[in-house]
Each structure stands twice: as structure tokens, then as C-alpha cells.
Amino acid sequence: MDRRSHDLDEKSGDPELRHIDDSAVAGSGSDIHPDDHDLTEQEQKQIIRRVDRRLVVTVGLMYCVSLMDRTNMSAANIAGMSVELQLGANYNIANLLFFIPYIICQPPSTIICRAIGPRIHLAIITILWGAVMIGMGFVQNFGQLAGTRVLLGVLEAGFFPSCVYLLSTWYTRYEVGKRYSLFYLLGCVASAFAGILAYGLMQMNGLANLTGWRWIFTMEGILTCCLGIAGYWLLVDFPDSNRKNWSFLGDRERAWVVSRIARDRGDSKVEAFNMGKFLRAGTDWKIWAYALIFCCSTTLSYALAYTLPIILIENMGFNVAQAQCLVAPPYAFAGFVMLLTGWLGDKYRVRGPIIIVNMVLALIGLPIMGWHSNANVRYFGVFLVTAGANSNIPAVMSFQANNVRGQWKRAFCSATLVGFGGIGGIAGSLVFREQDKLTGYKPGMYACITAALLNIVLVCICDLAFWRQNGKADREGKILEAHDEDASSSFRYTY
């Protein structure tokens, strides 16, 4: 049997789905079948495209403003915020303070999302953090700035893990790579064009007696609130939900979506929440390995997000206007690499090698970025580091999503993954320090190189374990990732 076979041939006992179609999980295979639920192959492809447009695009656009709102500090900083508020080294502390509540408040987020539904949960927190962003445009000192950053961390904590969890419930294991890449690509669009947008908003300097950096926060906060309101109408609930927001899918179409998930990994059935079962997922060492890989990846990506414009000015000699605009090309290149690696990972059903390739890109780019004598060549190194660091985010998300079974284990894994991503954010906000600019930020470069190397080691350990466990399952019929007594024996890890 192929190690990545995922035909489960299971029957679902979920009472929530019986009113849809008694045969919701009949059949075999997770690919498109022309006779499945009396839907033609063309109809099934159209359903997937409709889900892509309604779900991936919506959460991607919302993540776009989420990433922009948490990382626009660098644009505001070079626009005069540090001088006006007399921040100095407190700039790094203000960045760090976001991640403390961001980490603490994430574990309950997927539980809340399941309880009240992603439409309400994601829309409300988006509107609220947009209001906080508007308030950041009126802060008068470091204390007020720190308070708004903490509140922003509390509200944004529920967004990313809920999106990762929601996407994983709609797609099969070898479809999520492309979708995670597109989802995160839209976030990279924010990073790419946030600098250009910020430069445009800076030109409002003096309007209504507000300085340019204040308009960056205020206008981006208004944009976030508008997108949060739109998200309530555009977002969808989980495919197994009884909530009625199904104008784009009928019951028969929804039953087909649920059935293919059941065939793929056998965890479409949602058990009643049990704190013991939820926390028991923490006994699996692989959960923490995925989380640590994600932590190292976000250390790289946040280090760039918070300080790239500053590095372009201090280390490469560009002026403020050039730095704001030169942030965009490396992120555009990262988007191309992200989509390519996501497509290759899904096509060839591999995850670990994609992560390693991304980290090799970063390891090539970091020495160029940090040590080459020519500023233009150092800027080329920025392209490689940005591509490797940011392409790794959806790659790691796909890596963990393919190797976890059970709805509540998946929810726990999403929360811990993104929680450790927040720890990476803390590290990333401190990697390139103000006192290191005279040395070309060399300590930060060493830290990023270490993070990339650690990722390669961790992925190799995981893939070796997966190879051994898959072989044992083939020989002995061992059930992998069993989440209940009816779990299928045909699940295999993806490495």
C-alpha cells in the first residue's frame, strides 16, 4: 500500500450530518468521483472553486489587514513615531508586548470559534481590533502605545489559528498546501504594499493636526473595520455546522464536502468538547515539533516585517521614501515562491522537503544580506531571505495539517502552532536591535541563521519518525493517529 494512501471507506455516525444525507460518508477515495452524491465531475470541481472564492479569498483578505495592522509599526517608526513619542529602545518593547497576550489568548480561540461559529467570531474580533488601530493614531506616550499593542494582541490572538483550523476542515490533506499558500500570499500582499500605502498616508501629515504616522494607524484601522463588517456576510461556517449560511452551497453539495473529508482522514465527525481530550493532544511530541518549526519560521518572517525598512535605511543607505517602496519587491517574489512550493507540495504529496528548500534559500540569502560589501547585492539577499522565510509559513501549516487527525487534536495543534508563532514574533521583534546597527545587525543575522538550521534538523527528525511509523503500519497494520476506536488503519504520515 502506498504510504500516502488515504482511502478510508468510513461511515459517519455524526447526528448533525444525518439530516443532510444518510450516505454522506459512503464511497471510497478522496479525489473527485463522477458518481459521488449524484454530482458530475464538473459539478464537484465547481463546488471546490466556489469554496475557494468564498472561503480562501475572504480569510486571505482579512489576514491581509491582520498582518498589516500588527507589522505597520516599522512604517510608523520611520515616519516619525519614535521621535514624537521619544521611544528609543521602547520601540522594540512595544513590538514585543503585542505577542504576550497574542500567545496567552490563542488556546481558547479555536474552542470559541467552534462554539459560536467562525463568521461571528472572526468578524467581531476584526472590527474590534480595527477600532484599536484607530485609537493608536491618537496615543500621546509610550504607555498608551503599549496599552493599545497589548489590546491588539488580545483581539488578534483568535484570528490566525481559527483561520488555519477552518481551512483544514474544508479541504483534503493534499489540497491544503495550495490553499494555505494563497491564504498567506494575500497576507504577504499586505507586507509588500503596506510600505507604499504607508508612504501615501504619510503625505496626509498635518491634516486635522495629525502627523503622518498617526494617519497610517487611523486609516488602516478604518479599512480593517470595513473588512470586518464585510467578513460577517462573506465568511462561512464549518462544513458540518447546522448554522444557516449556506447560500453558496446546498445540502447535497455540503454533504459531498463532508464525505470527502471523512474519506481523506476520517475525522469529519465532531465530538462534544472535552477538556481532557483537548489537552491530551499535548502529549504527542510531534505537536511540539511542528510548533517549534513554526516558531523558527516566524522568527525570520517577523524580524523582516518589523525591521526591514529600518535595515534598508541604516544598513543599505536608502532614504525613507525608497525604503518604504523597496519593501514591496522582495515580498512579491516571496509570493511567487510560495505559490510554486505550495503547488509542488500538493502535486507530489511532500511537505518536509519543501520546508528544507525554503530554509536553504534563507541560508543563502542571510550571509549575502549581512556581509556583502555592495548595498545592491545585499538587497538581492533580502529577496532570498524574504522568500524562504515567508514561504515556510504555509509550508509548515500544511506539514502539521497533513499529519494530525481528530477535530479537537487539530484544534489544539492549530492553537499551539500559532502560539509558538507568537513566540517567534517576540524573538523576531528583538532580533535586529537598535544598538546593533553600527555592526550591520550581525547578531540578528546569526540568530536568523540558527533558526533556519534548527528548522532543517527538526524536519529531518520528524520525517525519519514518519518513515519508520509508516513502515511499521504497513508491516503490522498499526493504526496511526487514532482519535477514536473506529479510526481507519489506512492513514499514513506525509513527509
The secondary-structure class comes to mainly alpha
User: Kindly, what is the distance between the CA atoms of the first and last residues, rounded to a whole number of angstroms?
Assistant: 16 Å
Q: The biggest beta sheet, please? A: none
Query: Given the C-alpha coordinates, what overall shape results?
Result: globular
GO cellular component, one term: membrane
Protein name: Major facilitator superfamily domain-containing protein
InterPro entries: MFS (IPR011701), MFS_dom (IPR020846), MFS_trans_sf (IPR036259)
Pfam families: MFS_1 (PF07690)
Please tell me about this protein's structure.
α2 (41-71) runs antiparallel to α8. This protein is globular. The model is unreliable at 1-35 (pLDDT under 50). The chain has 495 residues and is mostly helical. It has helices at residues 15-18, 41-71, 73-85, 90-104, 107-116, 118-136, 142-156, 159-170, 176-202, 212-234, 251-265, 275-280, 285-314, 320-326, 328-348, 352-371, 375-402, 407-431, 442-476. It has one domain (38-476): Growth Hormone, Chain: A, CATH 1.20.1250.20. The chain has 19 helices and no strands. 72% of the residues lie in helices and 0% in strands.
